[in-house]
């Protein structure tokens, strides 16, 4: 149903929603919108829709779907939905599959291969330790002064990456806390000074920070592997283009719950990223098996996470040439 084909009218939308809520045969009610974090596109209408849904939905399940899986979600819409337990799913294709799976599970018995639901006992620290045990991370060390940073960079071999880390610095790049391709000692010293300045200036909001020097990983494909917990759908896993490929390949795949290796492979095949992994136009093929293992690991840990864990994200995971594995460059646990 096109609720703004005649132009947006919040009162008319409220009337339409009231009729949908009253219809017993309709459940859930799904809104698909272009609501990127930038606030553009359908953002203003989406805010009205979220407020109206919170007021009129009653016992009906209302779901917001952001058409793009990688453009984020309009902040005000996300806040309204979060406060009113309204799920927000990212990526139209994956969201529709997830909703279909969830709806079938509500109305018909679902075989689980005699598997019981896993206990949700893993804390954030537990998950971080498990991920480090299961997935290879970029080699790195924390440094306290410029000379130590240069020493570490020399040991790893130039170029290197430098990051500022802090308890509340979730999106480091957005805060100016990441420098890549540092090719000599002076570049390392300059980056240290810049990042140290940001951490000191933002200490009240970010918390006590530190600076980390890491070996730079190249010659691989950058992939996003993320787990999320939704109040309605439970744990879910998302895979798609990561890092610099996000803007070039805007698609992803989503599944509910814990996935197997075969299901992980099917998720990859659902995305255009699979073409690159297989070796586009005779180019080198990449280690899809290692990517599948990472997807399985994140989904398993998300399914066992305690209630305070809302997301587990590796972005990017650098998938290396076939047989060489994959290396995680950054991890966020919220």
TrEMBL record:
GO BP terms in the entry: tricarboxylic acid cycle
The entry's keywords: ATP-binding, Ligase, Nucleotide-binding, Tricarboxylic acid cycle
Keyword ATP-binding: yes
GO terms of molecular function: ATP binding; ligase activity
InterPro entries assigned: Acyl-CoA_Synth/Transferase (IPR051538), ATP_grasp_subdomain_1 (IPR013815), Succinyl-CoA_synth-like (IPR016102)
Pfam families: ATP-grasp_5
PANTHER family: 3-HYDROXYPROPIONATE--COA LIGASE [ADP-FORMING], ACETATE--COA LIGASE [ADP-FORMING]
The name this protein goes by in its record: ATP-grasp domain-containing protein
């Amino acid at each position: 149903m096109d609720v703004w084909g005649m132009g947006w009218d919040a009162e008319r939308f409220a009337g339409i929603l009231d009729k949908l809520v009253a219809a017993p045969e309709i459940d859930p009610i799904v809104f698909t919108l272009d609501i990127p974090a930038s606030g553009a596109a359908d953002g203003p209408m989406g805010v009205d829709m979220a407020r109206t849904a919170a007021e009129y939905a009653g016992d009906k399940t209302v779901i917001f779907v952001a058409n793009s899986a990688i453009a984020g979600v309009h902040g005000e819409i996300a806040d309204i939905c979060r406060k009113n337990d309204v799920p927000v799913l990212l990526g139209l294709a994956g969201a529709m599959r997830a909703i279909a799976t969830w709806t079938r599970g509500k109305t018909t018995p679902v075989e689980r291969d005699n598997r019981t639901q896993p206990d949700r006992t893993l804390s954030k620290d537990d998950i971080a330790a498990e991920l480090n045990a299961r997935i290879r991370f970029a080699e790195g060390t924390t440094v306290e002064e410029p000379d130590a940073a240069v020493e570490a960079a020399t040991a790893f071999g130039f170029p290197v990456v430098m990051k500022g880390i802090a308890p509340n610095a979730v999106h480091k790049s957005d805060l100016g806390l990441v420098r890549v391709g540092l090719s000599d000692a002076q570049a390392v010293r300059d980056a240290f000074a810049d990042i140290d300045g940001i951490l000191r200036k933002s200490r009240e909001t970010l918390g006590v920070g530190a600076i980390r020097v890491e070996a730079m990983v190249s010659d691989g494909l950058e992939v996003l592997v993320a787990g999320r917990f939704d109040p309605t759908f439970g744990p879910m896993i998302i895979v798609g283009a990561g890092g610099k490929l996000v803007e070039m390949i805007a698609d992803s795949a989503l599944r509910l719950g814990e996935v197997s290796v075969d299901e992980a492979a099917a998720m990859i095949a659902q995305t255009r990223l699979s073409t690159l992994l297989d070796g586009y136009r005779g180019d080198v093929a990449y280690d899809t098996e290692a990517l599948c293992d990472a997807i399985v690991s994140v989904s398993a840990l998300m399914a066992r996470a305690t209630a305070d864990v809302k997301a587990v994200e590796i972005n990017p995971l650098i998938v290396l040439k076939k047989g060489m594995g994959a290396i995680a460059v950054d991890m966020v646990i919220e």
